[in-house]
Amino acid sequence: MAFLGTSASLSHATVQTLNYVSLDAKPAYANAKVLPYANANAPKGGMITYPATGTFDNFNSVNGKGTAADGLQYLYDSLMSSSLDEPGVMYPLLAKSVTYDPDQPKTAIFHLDPRAEFSDGSPLTAEDVVFTFKKLLTEGAPGIRIYFSEIEDIQATSKHDVKFIFKTNDNKEMPLIVSSVSIFSKKYWQGKDFTRVTSQAPLGSGPYVIDRVEGGRTISYRRNPNYWGKDVMVNKGANNFDRIKFVYYRSLDIGFEGFKTGQYTAHTEYTARRWVTEYDFNAVQAGLIKKIEFHHQNPVPTQSTVLNTRRKVLDDIYFRQALSYAYDFEWMNKALFYGQYQRLQSYFANSELEAKGKPSPAELKVLQPYFKTMHPLIKHGIMRDWKNPVSDASGFNRFNLLVARHMLANQGYKVNKKGQLLDKQGKPIAFELLIHQDGLQRTLMPFVRNAKKLGIDITVRQVDVPQYIERKRNYDFDMTTDVLPQSLNPGNEQGRFWSSTAADEVGNYNFSGIKNPVIDAQIDRLIRSPNREQLVTNTRVLDRMLRAGYYHILSYGKGSEWYAVWDMFERPKREPKLNVGMQYWWIDAKKAEKVQQYLRRQS
């Protein structure tokens, strides 16, 4: 049974008490004792180690200050926990149930588990939930305040009941959003400044506590043997490592050298060249490294070159369109990526949310009111069967560059005797492309060379990670690269990515500086989608608008993730569909000892 309590009719609303939160789908595991991708009998013990880049100086990840330490999520619990199999479904964690109308959620009352407590043994109550959200709404990072702006009020109606009141009843995602937030201790934060960088980890209620910190170089977390939630359904078979450690490197390229020698044990691979050609080092030959390709059912993270429309010339949609023809994916995939990638044609690739072909009747119905105020080039792009420019993979990209040159000439751009493209004031056009990764120049130089053939001077500027983060946070760049994760249930976060409000908020995610009232209106429509069918339609319409605006040059991706691990881990027989689920892995003691013997011999 999905119902735990009462059901009452209020006007046209049906308020229910449920042991899950779901956007549309009927949860598969509402009555499960153990999740199917977990091994309830998994042994505890051992350590898993991950790489991180740059450094860290802040243990408060939500105030927008400094650089937050990796792994802070292990310190906290949220009201509910996401299913790794079902998009838009969450199961009990701090809250054992929730009372709300799933179709018109004007309010949601979360009923906390009376057993819930912080790691120091103090009880976690509704007052802590109220404190957390009021801090986020008043002192959280700007983007977070936007994300939660639909919350009108939060009230503790009893010690274990907390009531959220939303500004409207047509944003079905709000109960899901508030369910996923880490809860802080009101008592801990009394007398402390929430807005400042803190070098001390705040008190949490999660499965781990801070173990050891080495100033900006490593941080490790220790499993809390007294963790209150170890018997909650979503935690059975989870959190099996005694310790979780992050080792910081200047870049992931340097970090990979550390992986080869066992400095860390779980590596996520992002480079096709390395995945195909560089896994031949000693530990691999000794059979101690396992490569894993996890095929997921999520949208592919949107990897792209961001064009900052706050800068002159890049604010011209016709210029951005022409520049996109300088990107030669077909040659790069053949020469650099060993054929491992696909060109991204969408901000929601690999999912039903991706806009394909020409607009459907349902999409046209949404689009029709926008056409009268829409830029003609955007309208043209929306109405056609969208495809990015395709080259012949020869490496010359001759045809596409001729098309780009023709587009620029039609818009009045001229080339001087030196072959430089001139802006409307007669000045040579030059940009800086900001990066921090060592290995990225190799994949960017073909684009830079092709732009040069158009008379556009692009200089690749590599800076250290802290400077990169700060400049990106303040939109202090002409172009940069980005990888934007997307959800199968897009909602409020789309405002942080694309809205006019976010474009003016320092530290938000609208890096391209989009200020388009049509896109703003569509984001609002998407957020208020009443059902899955309309959510899909509204997302496809937004996808068309973003593509046709040429705000990013979409690059490449794949519907899988690559991992390499030292062969000391075991996984449940059934893997989840949406996430590799490392929190459900465990250590095989015999394999771990074999790895340690090898590393001792190598040292």
UniProtKB/TrEMBL annotation:
A Pfam family per the record: SBP_bac_5
Domain Solute-binding protein family, chain residue ranges per copy: 90-484
GO MF terms, alphabetically ordered: peptide transmembrane transporter activity
GO cellular component: ATP-binding cassette (ABC) transporter complex; outer membrane-bounded periplasmic space
Superkingdom of the source species: Bacteria
Record PANTHER family: ABC TRANSPORTER PERIPLASMIC BINDING PROTEIN, PERIPLASMIC BINDING COMPONENT OF ABC TRANSPORTER
Protein name according to UniProt: Extracellular solute-binding protein
Lineage: Bacteria, Pseudomonadati, Pseudomonadota, Gammaproteobacteria, Moraxellales
